[in-house]
Amino acid sequence: MHNRETLLALSKDQLIELIEIYAKNWLAMDGVWFQSVERKLGMDEAMYHDEEAWKRFTVTEARRIKKFLGLGEHPGLDGLSKALRLRFYANINEDEIEITKNTLIYTAKECFVQKARAEKGMPYHPCKCVGIVEYSGFAKTIDDRIACECISCYPDITDSTCSCKWKFTINE
Description:
Shape: globular
Helix content: 55-70%
Strand order of the largest sheet: 1-2-4-3
Strand content: 15-25%
Number of strands: 4
Mean pLDDT: 93
Structural class: alpha+beta
């Protein structure tokens, strides 16, 4: 049996559950390699490789989602909002998106990665520098007129009501 036939035989609810499993599996793999480098070579080395991986992955992810959604060259903040909702971890992190005029605020209310590290008694992942690479690269790939800045992200938390918060501004 071809794998596509296996997927076609699943119900919509089963497919949604499978997507959640895939997202968790992907994040687990991301965490496993990161923690391996972190244990062997330290946090600085792990962060270096994490940034390098995200520089490339975020562009690939954004490009594929952009194509899937049929977004044009400049889909603006509305296109970015739609694309953010389809990121690999979007369905396992609780988030919120607010758009006002030329600004989009993306808030991760709860982060699966930070929650998992806390449950294991590990320190939080200092993800701000990687987040800047990740969210800036994602937004620029969706629409090259969009700039990104960090409002709050570990270790520079300015909003304790969420895991992280990002501001996207479009220059039209």
